[in-house]
Design a protein that fits this description.
The protein is mainly beta. The chain has one domain. Helices cover 7% and strands 27% of the residues. The protein has one helix and nine strands. A five-stranded antiparallel sheet has the order 3-8-5-2-4.
Length: 153
Amino acid sequence: MLKKLVANATMASAVIAGPIGLAADPAAAGTCGSPGCGGVVTNRSSTNHSIKVANCFPYSSPAYYIGDSLPCVKNPDNRYAYNADFQLPVGASTINYSYYYDTDAFRVYGGCSVTYQFEGDGSIYNENRQAYSTSKWLKFSGIARVKILSIYC
């Protein structure tokens, strides 16, 4: 329930211009060793777009990070490393990538809108960045399961 409240708080947050200047230490960078032991993103986008996911998140950041790249990512566009991110294709789930058994965030690109849902929650959420050029990373924690429903750019 707390994970959902954190995500809901993200939806209600004020728009912040520019990157948030916070510490860049990674949050529990994907250290669990079995499928489903941490956060999972499944891309079921009806609009056939991939979504960028990360297996780390800055320790000091709130439930989101404004910026195109997370400061904890030392291995960009890499499915086979910790402290990394990559494009999760439509129909795929991070549960199938061992370095992403504990996924921490997904990216809503500047100029785009992402509709998503938490497993077990009937509510549908939308993060709209269509009016902004900078991306926003949404953090989730624990064993949260996030299903991406659509991406519009």
